[in-house]
Amino acid sequence: MIDNAVRAKAIALYDRYTHETLDRRSFMAELTRLAGSAAAANALLLSIAADPAVAAIVPPDDKRLVLRKGPYEIDGGSMTGYFAKPANVARKLGAIMVIHENRGLNAHTEDVARRLALAGFFVVAPDFLSASGGTPADEDKAREMIGKLDYKQVIAQGVATIQRLKTLENTNGKAGTVGFCWGGAMVNQVALAAGKQLDAGVSYYGPAPAPAEAVRIQSPLLLQYAGNDGRVNATGAPWTEALKKAGKRVESFTYPGVEHAFNNDTSSARYNKAAADLAWDRTLAFFTRYLA
């Protein structure tokens, strides 16, 4: 039985591996030392890492939705996107771009897109690894590929996707974005680049830009942080303070005692249902206010 103190240290170690420069061999050696044996380390890793076999909250064959995965055109090029919208809705909808974690466009991100569609939005989750051949099944490979991306190009693709969403026949001319971890960081960057073209942004535990950039933000932002996420919070607190000082429309919440990626229900050690539900309710209320 792994106690909470060991689990917390293992999560911090895993974050160093997945978000910083710790290589897999060193990570597994340190995790084995922490857990006491190779078998215990592997069991601990399974509880921390995302499990693609976990059942989706909204099933991928939900008849209440219209779903499609395929290419869409932006600026003379194309990306792969997962599209979701409610079925049998005649009114024009606010649009949302979902930006994935550093694992790429996986089943969990697609599930998040379906949840937003059920709430009454037109949703696309782009695969920002499209130009590299698309998101691979191997999460370590996906993280490696994301580390090699041209971030200026990624931000430009995000802005172009927002622009496209605003012009679709079945959308109402308003578009927002939500992102998680790597995607949460990209929400802030897209907001900086898009200016008034972005109508709302929600960032979940995303590393923040330099506080001096806050004066450039023109869209309302909702920032959500995990209490135990010191790495991200070290940037998030100054960013929030700078946005408020600059008179920007910002709401910021930190959920005490929860881990980075607390919204990801495919990771049993990280997921916190109470915090995830509260953050989700705030997300839907925010998008309804600015996109409906």
Automatic annotation (TrEMBL):
Pfam families reported for this sequence: DLH
Every Dienelactone hydrolase domain range: 79-291
Transmembrane segments: none
One GO molecular-function entry: hydrolase activity
Alphabetical keyword list: Hydrolase
InterPro entries in the cross-refs: AB_hydrolase_fold (IPR029058), Dienelactn_hydro (IPR002925), Dienelactone_hydrolase-like (IPR051049)
Protein name as it appears in the record: Dienelactone hydrolase family protein
Species this protein is from: Sphingomonas cavernae
Lineage summary: Bacteria, Pseudomonadati, Pseudomonadota, Alphaproteobacteria, Sphingomonadales
